[in-house]
Amino acid sequence: MNAKEIEIATAWGIIAAKTWGSDSDPLVLMFHGLEDNANTFDYLVYKLPYGYYYVSVDLPGHGKSDNLSSLGLPLQGMDYVYVIKLLIDHFAREKTIIIGHSFGAILAMQYGLVYPEKLDKVFMLDTLWFEIVAPSDFGKWTRHKFDEFTKISNQMRRNANVEFKYEECLELMSNWRFNSYSLSSKSAKNLLQRSIKPSSSGKYVFTRDPKLKNYMGTPVDDRYASEVLNSHNISFKVVVIITKDYEDFYNNKWPNLVATYKKIADWTNIPGNHNVHMDDPSIVANVINNYMEDSVPI
Questions:
Q1: How far, in Å, CA of 182 to CA of 197, rounded?
Q2: Angle, alpha carbons 29-33-39 (nearest 5°)
Q3: CA distances from 162 to 165, 195, 198 (A)
Q4: Are the beta carbons of 76 and 29 closer than 8 angstroms?
Q5: CB 101 within 8 A of CB 108
Q6: What's the predicted TM-score (pTM) here?
Q7: Which of 31, 123, 284, 296 has its CA 20 to 30 A from that of 101?
Q8: Segment 221-261, tens digit of pLDDT
């Protein structure tokens, strides 16, 4: 399968994506993690079965997609969930399968809580929820988010694009991530293809939306998140594929959330770290492929 680039028009600009397979086959949408891009699934997709139309999306502000028009305000919790709605409406399938990594998986699950009838399966790679905030920490959390966004906004008004040598970009992509796990050089180089552009000085600038560094997910505590999951009719198959480190992280901080997911989802532990879908994709594919035998309505 060779990748094909597509663009989807929206009110604020284009959403870019890369596709594999025939668009007449059942649809599999693929959503990357925060500040990654559609290339995150380049190695995994070739381990997945033929007979599906795989669409790996650059979420707005990532890769080749335009930024969301936020009118100078922070990016908010449901902005990207609505983007998923627009994409699923665009493809107009009876049912859709979603493979999401980290941030992308959380968006997919939140979409499914709103439109469960639109989904057949959701594969959640190494995550459960975003922005778990204790009620007593709401003021402190919000203040910190506002203060950080003010810094980013001031930098954007100055149009202060920081330039880097390619080797510096590679180092940042490998090691400056929302978790402590470094990317392999191969995976980092692959993501960089959609993350940087050359400057007039011969160096490079990152093209992703600076506001992503301070994305404001909807803050809820683990009890509320668990109750949301328990109280909705989740009619689609949910498959959690999680590394030991991330399961331990959630278990130590929010065991109720782990217990709830283990009731509503198929739960599979895998070796590796948060980047295993890029660095050792066969491990992830071996789980996904167990669920991909039954086709979904087109």
A1: 22
A2: 65
A3: 10, 14, 12
A4: no
A5: no
A6: 0.94
A7: 296
A8: 999 999 999 999 899 999 999 999 999 999 999 999 999 99
pLDDT in tens, 260-288: 999 999 999 999 999 999 999 999 999 99
- Which DSSP string corresponds to the chain? ---EEEEEE-SSSEEEEEEES-TTSPEEEEE--TT--GGGGTTTGGGSPSSSEEEEE--TTSTTSPPP--TTSPPBTTHHHHHHHHHHHHHT-S-EEEEEETHHHHHHHHHHHH-GGGEEEEEEES-S-S-B--GGGHHHHHHHHHHHHHHHHHHHHTT-PPPB-HHHHHHHHHH-SSSSPPPPHHHHHHHHTTTEEE-TTS-EEE-S-GGGGG-B---B-HHHHHHHHHHS---SEEEEEEEHHHHHHHHHH-HHHHHHHHHHSEEEEESS-TTHHHHSHHHHHHHHGGG-SS----
What residue type is assigned to position 51 of the chain? G
Amino acid at 240: V
From CA 149, how far away is CA 156, in angstroms rounded?
A: 10
d(CA 68, CA 10) in angstroms, rounded, equals 10
CA dist 87 and 107 (Å) reads 13
Residue pair 53/23 in contact by the 8 Å Cβ criterion: yes
Angle at 94 between CA 91 and CA 98, to 5 degrees: 65
Tokens of 286: 């071996």
Which residue type occupies 65?
S
